[in-house]
């Protein structure tokens, strides 16, 4: 058996991705490139609108700005490498590149889980304690909650990334995935990985399931509060703002739980790749659309900015 240190010093990995389907690779390249460019435009627009329009300088859009930044970073951590691999015969990624990709994938994914829980708390306060909203959700608390989400997400990645990368692989370099994902790297190990998988599961409960439980409890209180609202216009407004967040939560958590919280043998490897692709590109692409199409404040801010720029252009 090859020593773990020798494995960890290997120069590169080979990302097999969709190499067994060359015709599919060409289609995927075009589709993913378009989706990636739209993701960059959509999330950058959300960030700019939230920063430039004074009407959106409230906690909800402070959190939304961080979510858009997360989606930009998360997608960019893997999609350019995937596009490079899809566009040619070279499927390699350097060991350093793989380590960075794994760290960002785990870290940013964990931050997003926790940030969605923070956003659920924001909606809970807005709906259940509207008169005290600005007092409770003061800037220091918002910054503290976001910092906590980032800190816990990065800490999780700092624990799991080295543990995964340092597993002995006995010379195996072929990763049966399109990115350096933790389950795919663990499967390559030539030793018993029960301890690593156990630690990963415990951390997943803290990073994934605990925030989800908090989100569900928050929305339980929100639904109860909505049912007590007499005016239909008031209910409609709450459904609009909370519906956007709940849709994003459903997309994100539905996919991540299906991927990570089931036994690895119960789904095909190809299915896992496509689910990860959905998680990597489709969810970040849809998030700006969901918040823009369902939210009058964002649409209004976009109109004001566009009209303002037109006015400047005419002058």
Automatic annotation (TrEMBL):
It is found in: Cell membrane. GO terms for molecular function: G protein-coupled receptor activity; olfactory receptor activity. Keywords: Cell membrane, G-protein coupled receptor, Membrane, Olfaction, Receptor, Sensory transduction, Transducer, Transmembrane, Transmembrane helix. The keyword NAD does not apply. It is a multi-pass membrane protein. One of its GO terms (cellular component) is plasma membrane. Its main location: membrane. SUPFAM superfamilies: Family A G protein-coupled receptor-like (SSF81321). Gene3D superfamilies: Rhodopsin 7-helix transmembrane proteins (1.20.1070.10). Belongs to the G-protein coupled receptor 1 family. PANTHER family: OLFACTORY RECEPTOR. This is Olfactory receptor. The gene is LOC103213174.
